[in-house]
UniProtKB/TrEMBL annotation:
Gene Ontology CC annotations of this record: cytoplasm
Coiled-coil boundaries: none
Spans through the membrane: none
Protein name in UniProt: Amino acid dehydrogenase
SUPFAM superfamilies: FAD-linked reductases, C-terminal domain, FAD/NAD(P)-binding domain
Keyword Oxidoreductase: yes
Length: 423
């Protein structure tokens, strides 16, 4: 089929690659530009959860409390603010606070469900197409030390199941039954239950498969080619790079936590801010067969074949890179009581990735007013893998139909029009 037109996609992370996939499906010719190599941002570091059922947006009073705690001794926490970064993240934080009330939280969650309702069928299609080969669905094991905490978590996931994105959780069981499910649990794991519906995979393998698949279908991949600026000139959308200008009919900005620099000159204030997440690998004596959620620690453990990936932390230190060993130590201290048979000193692949955070926890997806051939697809917070396929289909519609395909809930101009992004 002859190409409908040329599209340049800026960023070969999860969102850029999913966008390229669905643009090719729709008959466009695609050039992918990446500042480095595909998956070089948050994509390969992530926890691998395809989790539409637990897609609540991050802004909430609980997270605000954790952030404030991280500013006072002992300066620890899963949501970590470095005081020296405050001037750089103040714009994001002010809008984050405004989004943390219960009404805004509930509306944002409903909005995220617009994409999440498409996640499971799209992921099933990608499995059928052979692009996803390692999807696991044994369920998430939610662990607690006290029965009342396990019951409260169970009740909140029962409420989540009423959104229609996951079945009701299995009943709460005690330690003996938990050890039959997972022999490698530590003493803190006394009560828990399995929650099915969400699934997981190895995100690095997914990046590689998406790259292979889009390149095999004719996409051009230009690595080490950072976009310096994007603009629309007449019927053309142009990307300036150190190697010259790349011109096409459309451009998609999908540069993750680097997107804000490209958006501002176009008049889009997205407040996309890097929230660094950490992961590392351990080699448990009893490899887990479920994703493990460790009480209220905000640390999760994903089974990945012979090893398990420990993930967590949202750190705002004003940078996008750089592993801080004290953050890894904090995660290990948090995880240790919940698991047994792990040599924590033998961890490998200690990595950090910048999540593209937005103040209301929702992505920015839509055309740029006055430059409708430029489509924004960024700000996926902690959910880029989960929301990636649905975002890719929306990007393909926006390229084909322009603003007529817009979903107002993800309007990239919402913080430019209204200081606090509502409406
Ligand atoms: C520890 C951790 C755990 C996570 N766990 C999960 C999870 O379990 N499930 C889930 O759904 N999500 C998870 N996430 C979030 C998810 O990884 C992100 O939301 C997702 O990677 C965002 O995709 P993206 O394409 O916007 O950005 P990225 O994946 O970061 O990709 C951005 C790409 O743009 C490129 N780039 C940057 N600047 C330029 C430029 N100027 N020109 C060209 N290219 C450029 C970068 O090199 C990079 O390749 C996790 C994230 C972290 C850090």
């Amino acid at each position: 089929m002859p190409a409908k037109g040329e599209v340049t996609v800026v960023g070969a992370g999860l969102i850029g690659l999913f966008s390229a996939h669905y643009l090719l499906e729709s008959g466009y010719a695609v050039t992918l530009l990446d500042a480095g190599a595909p998956g070089g941002g948050a994509a390969r570091v992530n926890g691998g959860w395809v989790c539409p059922a637990r897609s609540d947006p991050m802004p909430s009073w609980g997270v605000v409390r954790d952030g404030v705690r991280s500013l006072i001794p002992p300066y620890d926490g899963s949501f970590f603010l470095r005081p020296s970064a405050l001037p750089r993240v103040a714009g994001y934080l002010a809008r984050f606070l405004a989004s943390s009330g219960s009404g805004r939280f509930a509306r944002s969650w409903d909005d995220l469900d617009l994409l999440n309702r498409q996640t499971a069928p799209l992921v099933d299609e990608l499995v059928e197409a052979g692009i996803i080969g390692d999807l696991q669905d044994e369920g998430f094991l939610i662990l607690h030390s006290r029965l009342e905490d396990a019951e409260a978590a169970w009740a909140s996931l029962l409420a989540v199941s009423q959104r229609g994105l996951a079945p009701a959780p299995d009943p709460v069981v005690g330690r003996e039954a938990l050890l039959e499910l997972e022999p490698g649990l530590g003493d803190a794991s006394q009560f828990g239950f399995v929650h099915r519906g969400d699934r997981w995979l190895d995100p690095s393998r997914l990046v590689d498969r998406l790259v292979e698949s889009v390149v095999a279908r004719g996409a051009r991949l230009e690595q080490d080619t950072p976009a310096l600026a994007v603009r629309q000139r007449g019927e053309q959308a142009e990307v300036a790079t150190p190697r010259g200008v790349v011109a096409a009919e459309h451009v998609v900005i999908a540069a993750g936590a680097w997107s804000e620099e490209l958006l501002r000159p176009l008049g889009v204030k997205g407040y996309v801010t890097p929230g660094k997440g950490y992961s590392f690998s351990v080699f448990p004596q009893y490899p887990p067969t479920h994703v493990l959620r460790l009480g209220d620690t905000h640390v999760g453990v994903t089974p990945m074949g012979d090893h398990a990936r420990v993930v967590g932390m949202v750190e705002f230190d004003g940078t996008r890179e750089g592993v801080r060993p004290e953050r890894i130590d904090f995660m290990k201290r948090q995880a240790r009581p919940w698991l047994s048979g792990i040599d924590w000193d033998a961890s490998t692949e200690e990595r950090v990735g910048p999540r593209p955070m937005t103040p209301d926890g929702k992505p920015l997806i839509g055309c740029v007013p006055g430059a409708e051939r430029v489509v924004v697809a960024t700000g996926h917070n902690m959910l880029g893998l989960t929301l990636g396929a649905a975002t890719g289909t929306l990007v393909a519609s926006l390229v084909a139909r322009g603003p007529a395909a817009a979903v107002p809930a993800f309007d990239p101009m919402r913080f430019s029009r209204n200081p606090f992004g509502s409406g």
